[in-house]
Amino acid sequence: MKSLFIKNYLICPLQFNKSSGKVEDTLTKQSKSKITFKNQTYNIVDKVIDMRFSEDREYTSYDNILNNWSIPNFKNDSKIFKESINAAGINESDIKDKVILIAGVGGGTELNLILNLKPKFVVALDFSNFLISLSKKEYYKNLPVLFIMGDLCNIPFKTESFDYIFSGGIIQMTRTPELAHRNLWRVLKKKGYLNYSHIYLENLHNRRITSDRLFNNLHNKNVKYAKTFLRIYCFIYFILVKTRILKLINRKSWRLPFLIELSGNVNAKEYYTSAIDYYLPRYRHMIKEEDVFDWFVKCGGGAKRTPKGFISQK
Fold first, then answer.
1. Is residue 246 exposed (0-12), middle (13-18) or buried (19+ Cβ within 10 Å)?
2. Which one, 23, 85, 161, 308, has least CB within 10 Å?
3. In terms of domains, do 143 and 68 share one?
4. Regarding beta strands 48-50 and 34-36, do their DSSP bridges make them parallel or antiparallel, or are they unpaired?
């Protein structure tokens, strides 16, 4: 299935970009280490096809973030699984026996969620080199999943390739969110679904985060320094929360440089993993809710809200 999908649906993103979508240049040759199109060659690294442009291959901002994340095991926790399905607005019958694109894999949470719903085949697309490490996990060895490194703003697949596209917490991390959306809509089949979850929407909390992010500029500083800085402040914040001192502080006149207001009984490490996700990626666009609806309208669709995002049928 993997070889057949690559042969029938993979296209050269460089040629497609140059031709403005008029020509979908399919592969001409494939080996264990390379995949070749008419005028362009891409590497296969540890069985993962790298369809990114050459200038994007050495390092991405998420390479030093994803290693710190922990991913829930949905097979062992049915409660979290059901809660996640409901929150994402996923209808299980829309996934089973269908060809799915996970647009932005991250640490694998959404990928594992979808694989538990018995799809026919899943393409796991991500911009980060971390995808190589993720693909080596024993969990995926006998599952119908193909790992490909690529750019959501220039997706290397033919028009109308997927029955269902799921993207969780990724669209705001792309260099141009609306362009990424148009690419996702292009590769979605008619009658297929595009499902977004955890979009970084404009609200008071996110405006404060964005203000702090721009002021401290950690995403443009030395990674080791930035991580140490965040560890210290997250530990202080954790102590203030647990001792309830934070409630006594008038944060209109004073607050910590990093406002990570998480609900629930979390530990200092969880504050930290959230903080590096907020402050270290190269891009983090704050998006208005009405703009998301407008993206779909401009593409000829119409979205509706889910508990954690937006969904639309093409």
1. middle
2. 23
3. yes
4. unpaired
DSSP H or E stretch at residue 78: helix 78-88
Alpha-carbon dihedral sign for residues 289, 290, 295, 301? positive
Domains in the chain, number? 2
Give the Cα separation of 73 and 81 in Å (integer).
9
Rounded to a whole number, what is the largest CA-CA distance in the chain? Answer: 66
- Answer yes or no: is pLDDT of 290 > 90: yes
Contact 187, 158 (CB under 8 A): yes
Q: Which residue has the tokens 């190269």?
A: 282
Closest Cα to residue 174, out of 159, 148, 155, 191?
155
Residues forming beta bridges with residue 310, ordered by sequence position: 196, 305
Phi and psi at 166, nearest 5°, equal -120, 130
CA distance 212 to 223: 17
pLDDT digits (tens, 9 = 90+) for 141-169: 889 999 999 999 999 999 999 999 999 99
Q: What tokens does 261 get?
A: 């207001």
pTM greater than the 0.85 cutoff: yes
Proportion of the chain in helix, strand, coil states, percent, rounded to 5: 40, 20, 40
Q: Using CA atoms in the order 216, 221, 225, 230, what is the torsion angle rounded to 10 degrees?
A: 40
* Domain ranges, residue 78: 54-201+287-313
DSSP 6-49: HHHHBB-HHHHHHTTTS---B-SEE-SSEEE-SS-EEEEETTEE
Q: Do 102 and 174 share a structural domain?
A: yes
* Other beta carbons less than 10 A from residue 242's beta carbon: 12
Angle, CA of 131, 153 and 145, to the nearest 5°:
35
Residue 8 lies in a domain: no
d(CA 139, CA 295): 36
Give 172-224 pLDDT, tens digit per residue: 999 999 999 999 999 999 999 999 999 999 998 888 889 889 999 999 999 99
